[in-house]
Amino acid sequence: MDGKLHLKNFTEILVDESINKLWGESTSDCRCDRCRLDVKAIALNKLPPKYTVTDKGEVFAKLNSFKNQVHVDVLKEVVSAMEIVKSKKSHD
Ligand SMILES: [Zn+2]
């Protein structure tokens, strides 16, 4: 092997994408790194992981097909995680 293989959790990649999309929308909530990671942790705990071994060439095709299947679930969990973090911040 030449070391180009990676272990990826596609669910985590999609959660990151969704947070990136939604993070800037509201200005009233806290947008610090701590709250962002809290949102990510809560969403990832609710969603099944999807680990795949891949090299860079095939990752996007696989990711897109997986994304079509779970996109709605991922968005739903991210939105609900943001509500949870907003109502119960883990810092002052
Ligand atoms: Zn915060």
Concise summary:
It is built from three helices and two strands. With 92 residues, it is mostly helical. The protein has one domain (6-87).
How does this model look, in words?
The protein is mainly alpha-helical and 92 residues long. It has one domain. The chain has three helices and two strands; from the N terminus they run E-H-H-E-H. A two-stranded antiparallel sheet has the order 1-2. Helix 2 packs across helix 3 (56-87). The chain is elongated and about 45 Å long. The structure holds zinc ion. Zinc ion binds next to helix 2.
Amount of beta strand: 5-15%
Helical residue percent band: 55-70%
Shape: elongated
Give the distinct bound molecules.
Answer: zinc ion
**Average predicted local confidence, pLDDT:** 89
- Count every helix, treating DSSP H or I runs of 4 or more residues as helices: 3
**Beta strand count:** 2
What's the helix and strand layout?
Blueprint: E1 6-9, H1 10-23, H2 33-46, E2 51-54, H3 56-87
Antiparallel strand pairs: 1-2
The structure holds zinc ion.
Entry keywords:
2 strands; 9% strand; binds zinc ion; 65% helix; 3 helices; two-stranded antiparallel sheet; mainly alpha
